[in-house]
Structure formats: C-alpha cells, structure tokens
Amino acid sequence: MKHYKIAIVGAGPAGYFAAQALQNLQTEELQFSIDAIERLPTPWGLVRSGVAPDHPKIKTVSKVFEKIATAGNFRLFGNVELGTDITLAQLQEKYDAVVIATGSHLGKKLGIPGEDLPGSISAADFVPWYNAHPDFKDFSVLLDCQSAVVIGAGNVAMDVARMLALEPSELDPTDTADHAIEALKKSAIRDVVISARRGPEHAAFTSPELRELPKLVHTNVVMEKGDIQAAIVRAGSEIEKDTKSNLDAMLLISEKEPTNHERTMKFQFLATPVEIKGSGKVEEVVFQKTGSDEKYSIKCGLVITAIGYEAAPLAGIDYDKGKVKNIDGRVKENLYVVGWAKRGPSGVIGTNKSDAADVMKLLVEDLKAPKDAGDINDLLGAHKVITQTHWENINATEISRGEPLGKPRKKAADRNELLSLGGL
Ligand code: NAP
C-alpha cells in the first residue's frame, strides 16, 4: 500500500472538489492524507464570500464540502496564509504534491480615466463586503446618491445590481453581512443601470439568472424591447442554444407590463465606458455607443465594475494573463493548479468538479515513491490554526445566532471574533 500526503492551498470549491477527486481515486493500494490550507478562518471560498446572499440554494453545495471534510483523510488548516505563515517551498518539501486552488480575486480594471475616483469600485471589493469577508468589513461604499452604474454583462454584474436595487428588507432573511444590510437600508440609490459594451446576444448572463428577474417584487426591471429585437435579428437563425435561451428570457423581460416601484434596475447595451468624471468623487460615466462616435453620459455617484477577475500572484509561481502558468493543471515538479487560478474566472461552481478531477488524475499518474518529511504542524508551531473542529464551532454558532432572526446564519465578519468563535 502506498500512502501519499497532498496539500491543497485554498479551501474553496476548487480545493474541495480536488480533495473529493483524490478521495474517489483511493483504493486499498493507494491512500491519501489531504491537508487544506486556507488563509481565512472560514472555508468554502466563493460559496461563503461570493455567491449572492439571495441565492441560498447555490450555497447548499457546502453540504458536499462538509462531507469531503469529514471523510476521515482530510484536515483543515484555516487561518494559515501561504507566503506568510508557511512557504510554497516548505509545502513542496513536506508533501508528495501541492495543489493551488486559490481562485482569482482581484478585480480587472477598465483602464479608463477617472477609474480611481472615490465612488468607483470593483465587484471584487463590493461582493466580499456584503458577504462579510473579514478583509472587507471596514470597506466603505458610497451609497448616498440616487444612481449607480454597474459595468459588465455577466452574472457578477447582475448579482451586484440586484443587491443594490432590492428592497433591503428582502435581505433580512439572508446571510448578508449585518454591516451591509444596515448600509443598504440607508442607501439613497434608487436607479441602477447595468451596462454592457456589446449587444444582448453577446451578454455573459446565464438564463436562469435572467429568468428570475421578472419575479423581483419591489424592483422595476427595464430592458428596451427594440434592443432585444435587434439582437435577435443580428443573432440570425443559426443561434447557439444558450444565446437563444438568454434572448428569449430578455424578450420576456422587455415585454413585461411596466411596474412602478421605487427602485429600478435598467439594462443598457452597446455602451463602452470611456471616462469616469467628477470633482473629488464620481459624478458621471461617459459612454461611447459601441461601433459609433456618439458619446453620452449618465450621472451617478457610484460605479461598480464587474468585468472579470485576475489571480493574485503567489511567490514562486509564474503567472500569465491573471492565471497560474500551467499545462492541463501541471505547474512544475509536484505542483498543480485547479479552479479559477488555473483556467481563469469562468464557469459555475460545479465546473470545478470535472476540472479538478482531470487534474487529480494527472497528479496521481505523476506520483513517485511516498515521502516521509514530517507533519505540517512541525512548521506551524504555536500558530492559531482553525481546524475542522474549530470551524464546526464557528459554523454552529453562526447558524444558531441566525435562527431566531429567520436567517440561515448570522455571519461574523471580524477575524478575531471568528477565531474566538472557533475556540482559539
Ligand atoms: P463574465 O461572465 O466573464 O462577465 C464579464 C463581463 O464583463 C462580460 O460581459 C464582458 O464583456 C465584460 N467586460 C470585460 N471587460 C470589459 C471592459 N473592459 N469593459 C466593459 N465590459 C467588460 O464574468 P463574471 O460576471 O465576473 O462571472 C465570472 C463567472 O462566475 C462566470 O462564469 C459566471 O457565470 C459565474 N457566476 C455565476 C453565478 C451564478 O450562477 N448565479 C453568479 C456569479 C458568477 P465582453 O463579453 O464584451 O468581454
């Protein structure tokens, strides 16, 4: 029997699915001990810090993660940061293989004048703020204006726009951070424009997300029927199934009887942002009608870009275009990468399952004689490590605090509070 030790860096969906793939590859002859190293005191990655709080069903995948974590050969090392508390070289020395699953969490930039004005932020900051990510608990969002513009035509832009345009009391029965619910209840924002640089036929939204928009009960959702009809003509008859489904969903939205709520979420297409203007803070966004010279501007006090992500560099690893340089997930001798850090920020949570399974197959093929280089705990000494048991304490407390309030959980956003809820 051969017994290998594998380290996975990042306890998000890609990390858990890599662990699951290894668990599935185990036989009597081939055994794995899996250690997940996570910089936050909480695991689950984007399932905790990314998925919109009004989409609780998507978060039920956390049950799968907990099953993987309690299968017997998995240890969580939360509150342990690669590069600070432990180095990549140390992991590579101790483990038979190391898997990078750190995602990509830096917001891509538009690269236009005015982008750094106060009031211009990235979804990469706004989303973790409303999801109680400890690094963003003191982030401040300027919500004292009537209008906001969200740039991008993907599901993140849609999440962000919905969070701004929902009646905030709708967030009470969710696990939205308390600080965000409080701020959104005071928000003056009533008009949110989602802005796409291409036409509806090229939007990156997925149709389930579009189809839920007409169900919003306190928000007007506005799409111009002419925009969608023109896109249907441009798309022609040999249209892809997903594009057709999206356009059908958009046509339904555009044909819906107008509502007269206080809050509006409006889509604009073929609008390329060219400048953000304002004296001392955002006051307007200048757009160019894509494919023409025509310019116009929208007055607003908040701009949120949701135009994709890049991976934050880790020492000792080469990057290319915001991703870890790799061939089919192989990075170098005993180093692998999975998830968004490997393939870029695309796909839904489940996409990581097959992706990680493919990479873990290669990892197993590459394995040599098992190492005997001691335990990671030898390196961490007295460092405060959140183990699975500590995390289960945090999880249980958050859930029980949420119960009387009708929430799935009441999240703690403070790192020290999380450590103490864990029992450290
Ligand atoms: P995305 O789906 O790739 O969308 C990015 C959007 O940004 C595109 O519309 C893109 O337009 C636009 N964009 C890029 N650069 C731009 C620029 N310089 N100026 C203006 N627009 C620009 O990315 P995402 O929304 O960040 O989502 C990431 C992944 O997570 C996606 O696969 C998404 O489906 C998934 N996700 C899923 C859910 C869910 O299932 N509910 C929720 C959130 C996220 P072009 O096409 O013109 O480049």
TrEMBL record:
Species annotation: freshwater metagenome
Keyword Oxidoreductase: yes
Protein name: Unannotated protein
Lineage: unclassified sequences, metagenomes, ecological metagenomes
InterPro entries in alphabetical order: FAD/NAD-bd_sf (IPR036188), FAD/NAD-binding_dom (IPR023753), Ferredox_Rdtase (IPR055275), Ferredox_Rdtase_adrenod (IPR021163)
Domain FAD/NAD(P)-binding: 4-319
Family according to the record: Belongs to the ferredoxin--NADP reductase type 1 family.
UniProt key word Glycoprotein: no
GO MF annotations in UniProt: oxidoreductase activity
Keyword tags: FAD, Flavoprotein, NADP, Oxidoreductase
Cofactor annotation: FAD
Pfam families assigned: Pyr_redox_2
